[in-house]
Amino acid sequence: MNQVAYAIGERRGELLDQEQHWERMTADQKMALYDLNRFGYRLLFVRMMPEGPLAVVSQQSELAVIDFEGEVNLRPDIKLREESQ
Fold it and tell me: Has residue 70 been placed in a domain?
């Protein structure tokens, strides 16, 4: 499954701050992110998907996702949209 993740803001034009993204995460996602923080991963944003929130995290140029159940995918098939100047 190929997903496109948007780093600029919500597709609806609503920009969320880091705390608002954090609040959208499930408890399982937060626990998984705590574990990934030890390896330098940081939360980029959370997308609301039909099956539940999907957290997109990064460690330098490496992307990973955490599904609503807290399962981590270190090799997701996603692309971030480049920020337009």
Answer: yes
The predicted-structure confidence for 15-25, as pLDDT tens digits, reads as follows: 778 888 899 99
Looking at the domain assignment, is residue 85 inside a domain? no
pLDDT tier at 44, thresholds 50, 70, 90? very high
Give the 3-state DSSP-derived string for 3-58, with helices as H, strands as E and coil as C. Answer: EEECCCCCCCCCCCCHHHHHHHCCHHHHHHHHHHHCCCCEEEEEEEECCEEEEEEE
Domain range spanning residue 68? 3-80
For the chain, how many structural domains are there in total?
1
Residue 27, judged by CB atoms within 10 A of its CB (0-12, 13-18, 19+), counts as exposed
